[in-house]
From TrEMBL:
Descriptive protein name: Immunoglobulin (CD79A) binding protein 1
InterPro entries in the cross-refs: TAP42/TAP46-like_sf, TAP46-like
Extent of Basic and acidic residues compositional bias: 303-332
Similarity comment text for this entry: Belongs to the IGBP1/TAP42 family.
Organism per entry: Nothobranchius furzeri
Gene Ontology CC, one term: cytosol
Gene from which this protein is expressed: IGBP1
Length: 388
């Protein structure tokens, strides 16, 4: 709520039984200003007690106004006396004080009561043509009138803007109300200085009350939008409390145990164990037992020579090469014949590795040979000197 404006004739509160109508209005108005400007929490005990006290005073003043029949729909604004104009503010002040009530159990009741008072104030201002505005939609004012959303008694909730045009119009109306309120507050501050100085005549006092009434019209229109949203939330909350949704009963879940294999499958693989099941030696022995090991790195030619069929295949290949007049085979055969002619039968040599020897001059048997390397794939080099 915006800051309240000062009023003429405000005085200290007295006993409620001896208060006059004007005193009740002034005291209730003053309480609202104090509550609206206080720095204490609105939900504090002292503030809530002041709110209840102000509501009682303003309700008593409203009953007096109704008994005196100060206002009628058959008269115009000019026919209302200046001293009676301020009593038009009674419903607005009552609605504002009800909005200050913070009890959770009675919040829906407080908001509904505040809306009823605001609607009464706006309707009376519209009847007297105080200002031009569009009346808000009517809503239910009591919890008994609220029913389920699907029933026929449900209060229709205003639908939101369906297109950008209506949204723009709604935004423009808010901007216009805000501009009007600022203009009214500026004029009201000027008139208030004259009233506070005690030099205000009947016309200035009338302008002061009319400006206050028009200002409260803009405030009520702004409050009504947020009030409708809060009412919808509170009603839906009450409906949920009254008829909680029945949850389907289901059988309780049985406890289950995760086995070791399933846990390993989630960590090491998808559905199969990935932990080692044997050592390298076990694997080697198992494969050696089934005869599926490779040749253990030995050359294929050396392994093939161990079989008797390998020698026959070598001889056949040499014969084929000699028949085809292979130069390399012929040279190799001639060197072998020359070597046999020039060396005795008992001359030390390694027959199996003769094919890897490089012969330079093979006419003498007194040659020197050196064994350079032994083992698998032995390579011999023989240095032969001419001794002729």
């Amino acid at each position: 709520m915006a800051d309240s404006d000062a009023r003429p004739g405000s005085g200290p509160p007295v006993d409620l039984d001896v208060l006059k109508l004007s005193d009740l209005l002034e005291s209730g108005w003053k309480i609202f200003e104090e509550v609206d400007r206080t720095n204490e929490p609105v939900a504090s005990t002292s503030v809530q007690e002041s709110v209840r006290s102000g509501i009682r005073m303003l309700e008593d003043a409203s009953r007096m106004v109704a008994q005196l029949a100060l206002f009628s729909r058959n008269e115009d604004l000019e026919e209302v006396a200046t001293a009676d104009l301020k009593y038009l503010l009674l419903p607005a002040l009552l609605g504002a004080l009800h909005m200050k009530r913070t009890s959770r159990e009675k919040r829906l009741e407080a908001v509904q009561a505040a809306r009823v008072y605001y609607m009464d104030f706006l309707q009376r201002c519209r009847d007297y043509n105080v200002s031009q505005f569009e009346m808000p939609h009517k809503s239910s004012s009591s919890p008994e009138e609220v029913s389920a959303p699907g029933s026929s008694n449900a209060t229709p909730v205003p639908a939101g803007p369906s297109d950008l045009v209506s949204m723009a119009a709604r935004r423009q109306s808010k901007i216009e109300r805000y501009r009007q309120r600022k203009e009214l507050e500026a004029k009201l501050s000027e008139v208030r200085r004259v009233v506070d100085s005690g030099q205000a005549d009947d016309e200035v006092s009338r302008d002061f009350y009319l400006l206050n009434i028009r200002r409260w019209v803009t405030l009520c229109l702004e409050e009504m939008e947020s009030m409708d949203q809060e009412l919808e939330i509170l009603r839906n909350t009450d409906l949920l409390k009254q008829s909680p949704p029945s949850q389907p009963s289901r059988r309780p879940m049985k406890p289950f145990i995760l086995t070791k294999d399933s846990v390993q499958a989630q960590v090491f693989g998808a559905g199969y164990p990935s932990l080692p099941t044997m050592t390298v030696n076990d694997w080697y022995e198992q494969h050696a037992k089934h005869g599926v090991l490779p040749d253990m790195g030995l050359p294929r030619r050396a392994a093939a020579k161990d079989s008797p069929d390998a020698e026959e295949r070598d001889k056949e290949e040499e014969e084929k090469k000699s028949e085809n007049d292979d130069e390399e085979s012929l040279l190799k055969a001639r060197n072998w014949d020359d070597w046999k002619d020039s060396h005795r039968r008992a001359c030390p040599t390694v027959r199996t590795s003769f094919k890897s020897l490089k012969l330079q001059d093979s006419r003498s048997c007194s040659q020197s040979h050196h064994l350079l390397k032994e083992g698998a794939g032995v390579k011999l080099s023989l240095s032969v000197n001419n001794t002729s």
